[in-house]
Amino acid sequence: MEQQKNWVPLQIEAPFYTNGVLTEQTEHLWMVFHGYGQLADHFMRRFDILSSEEHHVVSCQGLSRFYLDSQYQKVGASWMTKLDREADIRHQQLYISNVFENRLNALGEKKVKYNYLAFSQGGATLLRWLNYYKPKVDNLILWAGDIPKELTAEDFSFLTPNSNVMMVLGDKDPFRTFIDVKRQKELLNSLNCNSKFIKFDGGHHVRRDVLEECVKHL
Q1: Architecture of domain 16-215 in this structure
Q2: For residues 153 and 188, what is the distance between their CA atoms, to the nearest angstrom?
């Protein structure tokens, strides 16, 4: 039997989470992206080291959810799989753009620093969106994530000489073998931005004390 795949357009709603509301004291807008199997509201807890008055944190969530355990109690999310990959990327870009523009509208004319952090699988999602949308980037933190193979130096035009890029990786991270650190360093050294590689004693997680060190470089 011959099968044909067909598509229909959908209009859906998708959540995002913040650590409170924008205030007159807000100086930093953060867009943060969780890793595989995590949820945005849980990932947000890593950022409790930041003052919610000065740092407005926006946590985006992968559009695909699934059960993590055989008892069907724990739920996680994923940004994409290899199935219908290009469609997933388009959906991600639309979702993240809508979230970002929602926050820009809330900011109005207020001037802030634009910070982006992505962990693990969220890294590729964030970098593809930055290449697609090309927003202002003051600080970019890629934590235990890799650069998508299709991206070249020309795809990082969203960075400027004033942009700070930090690559963070634990020396005991069991997934570090999947990250092409050599390519990361070569690519970042070829870009017109400020880059820093941060190694810490730990595994595959966002550690609060290391995050505090990163914040010092903002």
Answers
A1: 3-Layer(aba) Sandwich (3.40)
A2: 8
